[in-house]
Amino acid sequence: MDPRTNPYAPGAGTLPPELAGRDDIIEQAAIALDRFRNGLAARSLLLVGLRGVGKTVLLTRIAQESEARGFVVVSMEAPEKRSLPALLVPHLRSALLKLDRVAAAGNLAQQALKVLGGFVNAMKVKYRDVEFGVDLGNAPGVADSGDLEHDLIELFLEVGKAAKEKHTAVVFFIDELQYVAEDEFASLITALHRCAQAQLPIVLIGAGLPQLVGRAGRAKSYAERLFEFQEIGPLGDEDARKALAAPAQEQDVHYEDGALQEILLQTQAYPYFLQEWGKYCWHCATKSPITRADAVSATELAIAELDASFFRVRFDRLTPVERKYLRAMAELEPGARRSGDIAQMLKKEVQSVAPTRATLISKGMIYSPSHGDNGFTVPLFDGYLKRVMPVLPE
Fold it and tell me: Would 37 be classed as within a structural domain?
């Protein structure tokens, strides 16, 4: 069919034409934000799940709707090996400038900008990656001690007061939150906690891999009372079918049931993969309805595309030792990937391969669902490993 009218949108964080199965989470976030804005108790929200489940898409949709409803939105992605202050500073300045333009009496946003200036100067000494060339002024003695936890608390309190004065809330949307260093994450949690205690409208809606839950708990023991942890997984059968069928129906194109069954089997109903298979089904089909044969042809093309891009870019980041560890994991059935079994596959002691496991967790390639267990953060990655490494290396 005509590629110019192909409705599917596979991509990193690209909003799909039909965001199926996520309405409850979007509504949960909206309720929490309204409660924060009105001075009522609520919890920040952390979305956790594997790659390809649509965490970034959800953050984007919630951020768009929040901004449309008058909240001050601060969106960012936490890269690896970048300090939290370097990440926050330019976005906080932008947020405070937005607050300063909100039509309401008072000048607390200007005061908060001066506090941010002192914070920047103090953090430049401690964190060498903090670079900021605009003179914001300063408020001596506030958020300028050089101690991240203390200064971030004072800075957030000033920002929260400015937001409260303007009858709104500042909402931080932070993707890939698992890459924030644990001690810096602890400082962020503490600052949010103090704002909650002071009933100031500072909110975090973050997203990360499953290890984010454990990192939050290790950072601060009260994290489970400060956040709602929302696990994002594959779609249910009905929602997965809707994600595929609804965009096609907009153009009077339909799927045979056998085609939908084939796609759900191959994709395991992960939203990103549904978009890939939908795109290639559109490519393979010559007319409506899209048949099972079209879906089978699409599978071959989609897997080739994923192998060349989605999987490959992650595989290329790995050392030979890390690749061998993951290949050993791929030999084991999901749900039975114990550290001891992987070590046995590698003919090594558990302790000797533990550093490799730790590095893979740090890189976001695997996670530990429970003590001693291991899972891939990238769905279907075990199949890719078997294709690219047909035999476990000696």
Answer: yes
